[in-house]
Specification:
Elements (H helix, E strand, L loop, with lengths): L5 E2 L3 E7 L4 H6 L5 E7 L7 H13 L6 H16 L2 H5 L7
Antiparallel strand pairs: 1-2, 2-3
Length: about 100
Amino acid sequence: MDTPLFDGELVHARRMIYTPSAFAKSNLVHLQEVGQLQARSPHASTRQGLVRELRLVQCYLMPDETALRELSEQVIEKLKRLTDAEFAGLEFPMN
């Protein structure tokens, strides 16, 4: 975890990705990714911006990450049904 994945004005992130063997995937409990993310300055989220970011994240999903792809699609569909005012009223707790 010595090399940051993202290191810019807004975000600093480090992560380590481990790809388990087929045996480990089928027989053991495994952790695939660990890391940290630090926001360097405050920002305001928009509904459209979140949809764009989710679409971008989907580009980096592995083919076998179907559950994550389905979850992100469900979130995108819910975001499309919200108004900007409803989105502005949402709270996203950190823990």
